[in-house]
Amino acid sequence: GLNASVSTKLEFGVCTVTCGIGFQEVLLTSGCPGTETKCIVRVEECRGPVDCGWGKPISEGFASVKMSCISVPPENRFKYVSKTLFPNKTAHILPVDSAIMEACRDTHSVAFQCETQENGTIIASVKYRVCARTEMQTVKSRRVESGQTRRTKTDAILVMMVITVIIMIVGVIFAMIFMVLRW
């Protein structure tokens, strides 16, 4: 156990997040068992700035997008408020109280925001942009085009590597034959 007669000094580790809610270690810097100079006393929640900016969806399909609110276990202790954002207009609150929100792709791009609340206070907020179906088709065709050029470059590099290896092997074989004949 810990030596009770030694004065205890605590050090707080780095928070696991740069925004919203996360965890940090609380370390004891003196009085640890054995020869340990630091030991973990507990892990506790920590908070960063509320605004987490623009997030990346957890899954994207051609027809829909799944987005995640900022949370830590147990998720059911928080309240989640999802909104549709409009430029120069009031946000429209959606009837979703879940850490995961799914939105269908529309004919135009839409921005969503999910607020994580605890006891009526916003502790984290993240925004998502959901591209329209037509934009997804454009992005997909660009990926296919760039994928073909990338594949061509990769193939050329592989061919050059194989040729280089073959030349090296032939050189080593000639060197070995030369050494055997010289003896």
Automatic annotation (TrEMBL):
GO cellular component: acrosomal membrane
A GO BP annotation: acrosome assembly
TM stretches of this protein: 156-181
The entry's keywords: Membrane, Transmembrane, Transmembrane helix
The protein's name in its UniProt record: SACA1 protein
Organism (species): Aegotheles bennettii
